[in-house]
Write a structure and sequence with these properties.
Blueprint (H helix, E strand, L loop, with lengths): L3 E4 L6 E2 L1 H14 L18 H8 L7 H18 L5 E2 L3 H10 L3 E9 H11 L7 E5 L10 H9 L7 E5 L2 H10 L2 E5 L6 H6 L4 E3 L3 H8 L8
Parallel strand pairs: 1-4, 1-6, 4-5, 6-7, 7-8
Antiparallel strand pairs: 2-3
Length: about 220
Amino acid sequence: MKQLVIFDLDGTLLDTIADLGTATNHALKECGYPQHNLSSYPMFVGNGVTRLIERSLPEDERNPETVETVREKFKAYYNEHKTDLTIPYPGIPELLRELSSMGVKLAVASNKYQAAVVALIKHYFPYIDWHAVEGQKEGVPTKPDPSIVFEILAKCPTRKSKVLYVGDSGVDMETARRACVDSCGVTWGFRPLRELKEAHADNIVNSPEEIITIVKRSGLELDV
């Protein structure tokens, strides 16, 4: 049985796209740039706020100074409105409670900036005893670099064969591969099934309860 499950946040535990898109549109409008339909944002997110802002700007405006200006306006708005429209995906609260009751350690690894990750986890899942909640920090590479997974393993020492990484994107599957842990792609998030398959997800699930089966799965597991 797996002993540690690491979850991505946006598109995996929480449907945050409406708040992310609204905050980005607010920042773009404040700076005089065109806004986007919210349906465009699932393909903009996944690599942190800086990349979200870069992708949302016109190509000829993606210079460091403009990106930083829009990013700061995004953060000011998002910090105040990050829970306006965000909700947990159906079945996620039950999944987390079940895993906790099984004695499985739970952690979060997100490319969203640290303060927002901590605030969202405290707001939506205060009943869970998280062993690590890690977001983007200054000086630490974003996913798919595996550094964030190694930070979690430093706080929760666990054999890699006993770790499952759960996410909704190719970035998440690549993060797990680079960290040498099993991956699980979820189909209810922001990215299409095709992306998970192309990223060679070890497992793909259509509902949270299927993750329980993967966690319980027994078999020959080598120490890594």
